[in-house]
Structures are given as structure tokens and as C-alpha cells.
Amino acid sequence: MPNIVKNYNESMGRVDTMDKLLSSYRPKMRSRKWWWNLFNNALNIAVVAAWRLHCKLHDADRSAMTHLAFRRDITAHLLRARPLQIPRPGPRIHLPHSLQRSRGYFLQSSTQGRCAVCKKNCRNQCVQCGKRLHQICFLVYHQ
């Protein structure tokens, strides 16, 4: 008998066991995305492999959890886990401080409109005069 056939026959029992464990608690999820079933299967294989390692580690003292209890424990830990906190940037200051407070005039963000100097689209508006101005056009207009 060739060596490759011998190796296949030796590991065939492990493949059958893995298939049996995968099908025992397979979540019933359907999706139109082609990759979603592959992703779920990969997660399912990872959980089964982790449970097998858990059983091997706790084989001596017979304290290993059942497959269902192990899945429930993983689910409970994931539900209690805190979500990753993504730091949000603070408000952006668009103008240098010297330009913001020049002679009582300063710019603030507003809806889009035309600049009073260059006639291009602009999102800054002077609080005193109400004109929409770019940062560069601000000094030109108020001199």
C-alpha cells in the first residue's frame, strides 16, 4: 500500500470526527454574500479546534467542558467583552488663532456658499458681516 494512502486512511477518522463536531452545533445562517459561509465555517472550525485543545489539556483531571458548554462560554465572554474604543478627534480649528480674532471679525463653519472675494465655494462665514470667505480671502476683504 502506498504511503500516501496509508496516511489518508490513518487521518480519515479525524476528518470524520471534525465533520461530526462541525455539524453538531452549526449555526443556521444564510447570506447572499459568497464569502459569509466560508467565514462562518472558518469560525466554526476554530471553535471546534479550541474545544479539542481544551479537552486535551483537561483530560487528566476530567474537568473538561462539553462541546455545547464550551460554545456557550465563548459566547458569554464575547458578549461581556468591551467594544474597542476608537479615539475620536476633537473639533478642528481651521484658522490660526491670529486670524480668528482680528478686529472683532472671525470665521465660523457654516453651510456651503460662494466666497465674497474669489467667488469659489466656501464653508466659512464671517460672524460680524455674514459674508462667506476663505481663510486667505478673509484678510483681503476686511482690510
Q: Notable features of this structure?
A:
5 helices; two-stranded antiparallel sheet; 2 domains; 2 strands; elongated; mainly alpha
Strand content: 5-15%
Q: If strands are numbered along the chain, what order do they take across the biggest sheet?
A: 1-2
- N-to-C span: 96 Å
Number of domains: 2
Structural class: mainly alpha
Write the H/E string, N to C.
HHHHEEH
Spans of at least 5 consecutive residues whose pLDDT stays below 50 are none
Residue-averaged pLDDT, rounded? Answer: 83
DSSP E strands, number? 2
Q: Can you count the helices?
A: 5
Report the radius of gyration as a whole number of Å.
32 Å
Task: Sketch the major β-sheet.
Answer: 2 strands, antiparallel
General form? elongated
Into which percent range does the helicity of residues fall?
Answer: 40-55%
Task: Please sum up the structure shown.
A hairpin with a 6-residue loop joins strand 1 (107-114) and strand 2. This protein has 2 domains: 3-80, no CATH class; 97-141, no CATH class.
Description:
By secondary structure, the chain is mostly helical. The chain folds into two domains: 3-80, no CATH class; 97-141, no CATH class. 48% of the residues lie in helices and 10% in strands. The protein has helices at residues 3-24, 36-57, 67-80, 97-100, 135-141, and strands at 107-114, 121-126. A two-stranded antiparallel sheet has the order 1-2. The N and C termini lie far apart (96 Å).
